[in-house]
């Protein structure tokens, strides 16, 4: 089918999962509970609005060559919920006196650069889509999200969560939802939804590693490191290296992610556990990347990118589908029986998807 006739379904995707906010909303601390409840209510409103909004179609690819330079614009929502807000920095503009604005601008650039230099992709849609972001969204809003068209960052409550621009992998995570939207368009529920979330964690982590020039061995493999407040017993929102260990806190609860299919969680919440069961494919990627060594985006990342964008991954794909197609992608890229092929087989077997 011609790309101009393919319809993509922009979903509302947040980096902090609803099960975590639900736990905080039951806190004995009224301020913490109120902030979490407000965030949940705003997320529910935005999620509903996204479902009823007319689905956009992908525009036909432009005939002229696409620029290798990003087109970034950062807006200040000024603690309101009307988007995008006041424009405060455009592409090539001077740095702002607001560190949040500058972090958002830099994170958009880091994401653009990894996809371009690592995989030859020109922005989210591969056609030079402008990258827009709004900061200072809402009052003590404990989340960041991709709404199908742009990035939005809350400031956090300053207690359990800090400013959501502090982690470049969170920025990359949310923008990768846009890449998925324009490629495999994975349904946002069950295993396909968990794959959708995992793609964002994988490339979010790669963006951080690329920006820090880290090898797979050097990386912390954490999503949202630095985002949790100083009184929280935890290091991040998720760990790809050791799913289930990112936090264990009186207010947040314990990280529920499984690392293998033995711990797969069956639930009707969170669109069938999309933020929970994503730990399984996350861990598989970690195992592949560390087995191969070196810069994770150079081989493991290429295999995951080829699987996501190759056209064979169905929108309702499950974990087994992705495992099979990723092994095929490794063979296509690097040959049968090589280190890459063996690393894929070993990793998927280790997480129970051999």
Q: What letter string, H or E per element, gives the SSE order?
A: EHHEEHEEEHHEEEEHHHHH
3D shape: globular
Q: Determine the N-to-C terminus distance.
A: 33 Å
Overall structural class, as computed from helix and strand content, comes to: alpha+beta
Proportion in β-strands? 5-15%
Compute the average pLDDT.
Answer: 92
Largest sheet: 6 strands, mixed
Assembly type = single chain
Model regions low in confidence, pLDDT < 50 over at least 5 residues = 1-7, 50-62
What's the helix count? 10
Radius of gyration: 19 Å
Strand order of the largest sheet: 1-5-6-4-2-3
Tell me the helix content.
40-55%
How many beta-strand runs? Answer: 10
Structure explained in plain terms:
This protein has 354 residues and is of the alpha+beta class. It is 41% helix and 10% strand. It is built from 10 helices and 10 strands. α1 packs antiparallel against α2. It is globular. The protein starts with 12 loop residues before the first strand and ends with a helix.
